[in-house]
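Predict structure. Chain length: 205.
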Amino acid sequence: MFIEQPPRIFRWFYPHALWRINPEKKMVYLTFDDGPIPEATPFILDVLDRFDAKATFFMVGDNAVKYPHLVEEVRLRGHAIGNHTFNHISGARHSPWTYLANIKKAGDVLGSTNLFRPPHGWIGMVQYRVLRYIGIKVVMWDVVTRDYSRLLTADDVVNNVKRYTRNGSIITLHDSLKSIDKLKHALPEILAWLRQEGYEFGIIE
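Prediction complete.
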């Protein structure tokens, strides 16, 4: 996992992946990985509604199978959905064809989406090139909050957003068991600060 903001060299490896969107516009793109799960996703949706903010949810196919009502709820509330593999597997640990098959399996569950985020940010060059060839947009990030880390507090997560966010930032959070306790405090503070700073919220398409 890249820490907070990925070094420029990592962006060079995947030049056609999406790391940041239009730096000329005061807009950020909130993303949530690993869900949906009932312990986290409904809370996040309610907070986003409170701040009139939209986000993009990169869903694990296995979770989508278990909680199809949450997938539908995310759609109904106007958020975008992306693919995060079926079993949250790393591209570094699987052959290109096993990995691509896992992505397809998730896609069959999630329905029409051309967005994909590789778990842990690891994707092999063959996997990356095949996805690009078939029209899948690989979405990375400009800021990773590390809300999943046991070494960070909720205030640390908020401060990561304040320190690294800039125009066009794709900000990564998680609707997961590892993150939700911190997000109950951090997410409202993050959204309030972003609004105060004049940022608008976009979804990735």
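Summary: The longest strand covers residues 27-33.
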